[in-house]
Amino acid sequence: MLLIGGGLAFFVSLLCFVPIIIIDASVGDSNPLYNLHRGCVEYCEKTGCVGDKCFQHCRFSSDGVSVDGPWYMQEPLYLRWKHWDCQTDCRYHCMLDTERDRQMDGHGPVKYHGKWPFKRAFGIQEPVSVAFSALNLAMQFHGWLSFFILLYYKLPQSPQNRKPYYEFSGLWHIYGLVAMNAWFWSAVFHSRDVDYTEKLDYSSAVALLGYSFTLAILRTFNVRGEAARVMVAAPLLAFVTTHILYLNCYKLDYGMNMVVCVAMGIAQLLLWAVWAGVTRHPSRWKLWTVVVGSGLAMLLEIYDFPPYKGYIDAHAIWHASTIPLTFLWWSFIKDDAEYRTSILLKKVK
Ligand SMILES: [Zn+2]
């Protein structure tokens, strides 16, 4: 019973604090070879070259204005992109060099700037994680669309207001949007890890976790009145908004973010656990499967391993595992809509 809530909470909260695990455990940063790597990056950012490879992006004059290109290409925003490109290219190629040296000495891979040495594909930093994030996004869209079709084309609607009988339809629509938004920014963040994409990914994940927590309260307590819903949701959403503003405008505090995420995750855990014990929902097995799946997926984040062939790491597999779990989760939501509708129709008759 407790596992049900646990799985669901972890399923959501992993989205939130997984990037923290990656950032905290940076073996490469304390390695002696890392100093060599850092020297390489510093040299590269000054000269624009690693070995015989040189990058266009790194050509700046002494006052920070681009040396080449027409005047309209020297706008500040363009320059900022150029700086990012220069930094990521330098880090990437220095990492490849350091990793090659380490391999020749018989050492395994280490992390650089908090990340495993991934091989790029088409300029994408972590192509496999991006692909799985995109598939998660597609699965969320599919789930939401089939939920929409079920509500408005298959299930009977209330004759008075021509709305679905299911009282939580609007809340699940918003959930679909928030989840799709989170996976979109996850895909962007894994394509290119810079300050802005990192903040957008974190913020979207916190928003999803906070919203799903609110939704868990409303569904498990069967809160149906509008005033009661606002009373419950307002303080929670205010807290989540404040937390997101703090991360973006004040400090991206990974430790504190983890505490907030774990707290919201555990709270959801307890709620779904109690609800699973009380209700006689016909689709409990779907919850169970999501739980066991999430539990196994969580092991991937604990036993974090370097990317296989430079592409597939534990985090990528975790993103893959949430794809079928998302399918089941929406399947449960659809069952819930049918179940509630049938109960309400019996009451009407
Ligand atoms: Zn990710």
Automatic annotation (TrEMBL):
<dbReference type="GO" id="GO:0005789">
    <property type="term" value="C:endoplasmic reticulum membrane"/>
</dbReference>
<keyword id="KW-0333">Golgi apparatus</keyword>
<keyword id="KW-0472">Membrane</keyword>
<feature type="transmembrane region" description="Helical">
    <location>
        <begin position="254"/>
        <end position="278"/>
    </location>
</feature>
<protein>
    <recommendedName>
        <fullName>Post-GPI attachment to proteins factor 3</fullName>
    </recommendedName>
</protein>
<dbReference type="InterPro" id="IPR007217">
    <property type="entry name" value="Per1-like"/>
</dbReference>
<keyword id="KW-0812">Transmembrane</keyword>
<feature type="transmembrane region" description="Helical">
    <location>
        <begin position="230"/>
        <end position="248"/>
    </location>
</feature>
<feature type="transmembrane region" description="Helical">
    <location>
        <begin position="315"/>
        <end position="333"/>
    </location>
</feature>
<feature type="transmembrane region" description="Helical">
    <location>
        <begin position="165"/>
        <end position="188"/>
    </location>
</feature>
<keyword id="KW-1133">Transmembrane helix</keyword>
<comment type="function">
    <text>Involved in the lipid remodeling steps of GPI-anchor maturation.</text>
</comment>
<keyword id="KW-0337">GPI-anchor biosynthesis</keyword>
<comment type="similarity">
    <text>Belongs to the PGAP3 family.</text>
</comment>
<dbReference type="GO" id="GO:0016788">
    <property type="term" value="F:hydrolase activity, acting on ester bonds"/>
</dbReference>
<feature type="transmembrane region" description="Helical">
    <location>
        <begin position="130"/>
        <end position="153"/>
    </location>
</feature>
<dbReference type="GO" id="GO:0006506">
    <property type="term" value="P:GPI anchor biosynthetic process"/>
</dbReference>
<feature type="transmembrane region" description="Helical">
    <location>
        <begin position="285"/>
        <end position="303"/>
    </location>
</feature>
<keyword id="KW-0732">Signal</keyword>
<dbReference type="Pfam" id="PF04080">
    <property type="entry name" value="Per1"/>
</dbReference>
<feature type="transmembrane region" description="Helical">
    <location>
        <begin position="7"/>
        <end position="27"/>
    </location>
</feature>
<feature type="transmembrane region" description="Helical">
    <location>
        <begin position="200"/>
        <end position="218"/>
    </location>
</feature>
<dbReference type="GO" id="GO:0000139">
    <property type="term" value="C:Golgi membrane"/>
</dbReference>
